[in-house]
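$ fold --in a.seq
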Amino acid sequence: APIVVVADQSPSTRCGAAGVPIAAGIARAMATIGLSAVYFQDMFGIMTFDKDFSSVAALRPRVGRSHVIHCLDAYQGRVTMEDVKAGYRLATTVGGHLRRTTLLPVISDFLFGDAPERIKEIAELNSVHDVFLVMIDSAFAFELPDVSAGWINAFDVETGESRLMSRRELRALARRVRAWQDTLERDAHERGLDVLRIGVDQEQSLPALLEFVMVRRLRKA
């Protein structure tokens, strides 16, 4: 079966902390899964989505290390991708693009408001394809330095909206992100989806991801 990674390319993934964006974890996971496809001589392709899944683009699966690199360049915006025709729901958009049974890793931080509904739609694909989630632990990006100001103006890079929040709210952001991702992970498990939750530290995340993917490929074989 080919491998098609569905990767989050929304503007928020370009944010992060200490010079490390959330997108770095997504790209690293994509590269690891792509190289595992090379090892098994499987075809590898990608689909990307932005905020609200309003725009989905893809590169068709092909064999070879050079194509994996081509896909990584496309994720970073250096290569033009094919627009995917939008269906009525996310499941029909993704499923309508796939031509055969596929190993379908979905990589995102899942920090969007309708994530529970999107995970429900993704789970519907699991009846035909082999779907699992790779959740990038993004709480690190919200562990901000303490500030002396009592009120902070926060800007949302995706909606363009600003919000005034208290210093107490700012300190609680990382905790709220962890709680949100914990809830989504439980929800995904209840819907029969495997979830691998990894951080952006490559020394810790890469071995876990590689072992997970390799074992899954061998199990399916």
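$ fold --in b.seq
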Amino acid sequence: GKIAFIIALEGAHAIGQDPAILTSLFRTGVRVVSMAHLGRTFLADGSGLDDTSNSRLTPQGIEVFQEMERLGVVFDISHLGLGGVEHVLELATRPFLATHSACLGITDIHRNLGDVQIKAIAQLGGVIGVAAAIPFFIDLENPSADRVVDHIEHVIATAGIDHVGLGPDFVD
């Protein structure tokens, strides 16, 4: 009865412009989807390398988002551009994830989440996975374990302990 592995789709390039493909992916076991990675897809703009990715979800992105909610596929905002994150916060009716993010109030980079976003994710029952293995999310000068704990404690203070997790993304 324990889940050992969850299939996630990061980037959603496989969906292209056809929201119906999501249903096929769901049947194969995909349960978490991020619509973009660093660049642009037919669904949304990715976080890019700076704060210029400000577009909202595309019309196809909205359709895919609605289908995800219908199917119960969990949305991951970690790689969306700033405009996409705000758009998902407007559209969402159920919990979603930030699988590997951190706190803007501690480390000021565009990829991290502000307190308003953290609270909004928590209000929907979502979880923020602190990107413990991505040094520049944690601290540009001192990416230590103590700084990871600072981010975890900040999410707890802002949203509550039920809304924080570890989201290493990858480990070298």
